[in-house]
Amino acid sequence: MTEYKNRIIGSGVEPLDQILFNPRNWRVHPLNQQNALKGVLEEVGWVQEVIINQRTGHLVDGHLRCQLAAREGTKTIPVKYVDLSEEEEALVLSTLDPIAAMAATDRAKLDDLMRGIQSDNEQVQALISEIATKEGIIPPDFEPVGIDEQVRLDQKKKVICPECGHEFTP
Amino acid sequence: MSLHLDWCSHEAAKYAVEHWHYSKRMPSGRNNYIGVWENDKYIGSFIYGYSISPHLGSLFGLKQTEVTELKRISLREHENPVTKMIARSIKMIVNKNPSLRLLVSFADTEQGHLGGIYQASNWVYVGVSIVQQMLINGRWRNDVHANRMSGYPKRKAPAKHKYLYPLDNEMKKQIEPLRQPYPKRGRGEIDNAPDSNRETGGASPTRPLLESEVT
């Protein structure tokens, strides 16, 4: 049996102006993501600490949370401290988000989950709607199109000669 | 539960493939797109089109314009049977393309698919099909020129179960002798397609991954 090493060495609360952003952070955060996080933070609050590597002092996870909190005038943020070498920090920094994004979706379970969510927060509502569309729970209202929009599969495509304009089937 | 099949746009078909088909990839080539609506809600699409292999029909003495492939069935949760949808989609394809004589479809063994819907729709099973693939831009691609091109890594693609559906009596006479017994799932085997086996997608309670899920 494999026992994984525990690299977490503590947790606490850190003043936002003391947090050192990671110079190798490769994530950029579009406005809709900022709004989505802001909505959930307003509705629920902190449920997960940002991660700081105590050996380098760099933030490893939670750049957007820190930026958003600072913008809103928050003074402190919950922090989890880890102890990693620079190489390990690079590995975690480059893989943490992509690994989470590799998870697939059980639409029925997500559908059930979303039906239980009640929120008056506009940003949360927009986020839920976006997730539902993205995950195929609420598809757009596609309408039928005319038969003429379909090509004939039992006929070869016609070609028009670029020189003389003659149309023929090869 | 009302069922309506009608022609749909490339965009609608693409949405269905990207959200409800295991491959998440639109097939290339000339295609016809059929949408499916249940109670006026869009629930998926069927895509028929030219096969990647222009020789698909030559085994049966058919021209490329006489055979077409059912390339994708991309459906979200639904209430009407797929067999009913397949039957209606075939009628539409034949009305649009009256010179067609044969339909072909494949079930991906790599996904654990056996082609149960084709079996239930009485398609003719003719065995497994193995094609050569080339690694181009980091992706294994079926290519009819794979045997002749050099410089690309090649492999035999995972086998696919091949099913045929003759559209006229003469073709039926020609195809029927090729019929083989339908492949069946062995005891203890599970359908590995994520969308058809919800049990593999849950995270609660946490359970150990099976060896078969890791490899």
Helicity of chain B, in percent? 10-25%
- Rounded to the nearest angstrom, the radius of gyration of chain B is 18 Å
Q: Report the uncertain regions of chain A.
A: none
Largest sheet of chain B: 7 strands, mixed
Give a verbal description of the structure.
The complex is a heterodimer of chains A (170) and B (215). Chain A contains five helices and six strands, in the order βαββαβαααββ. In chain A, a hairpin with a 5-residue loop joins strand 2 and strand 3. In chain A, helix 1 (31-43) packs across helix 5 (122-134). Chain A is elongated, with a radius of gyration of 25 Å. Chain A has a domain at 8-115: Conserved hypothetical protein from pyrococcus furiosus pfu- 392566-001, ParB domain, CATH 3.90.1530. Chain A is α+β, with helices and mostly antiparallel strands and 170 residues long. In chain B, the strands form two sheets. Chain B has a seven-stranded mixed beta sheet with strand order 1-2-3-4-5-10-6, with helices on both faces. The model of chain B is unreliable at 190-205 (pLDDT under 50). In chain B, strand 2 (31-38) and strand 3 (41-49) form a beta hairpin. Chain B has five helices and ten strands; from the N terminus they run E-H-E-E-E-H-E-H-E-E-E-E-E-H-H. Chain A binds chain B through residues 104-109, 135-136, 139-142, 144-147, 149-157, and chain B through 6-9, 11-12, 15-16, 19-20, 30-33, 35, 37, 41-43, 48-50, 64-66, 68, 76-77, 93, 96-100, 194, 198, 201-202.
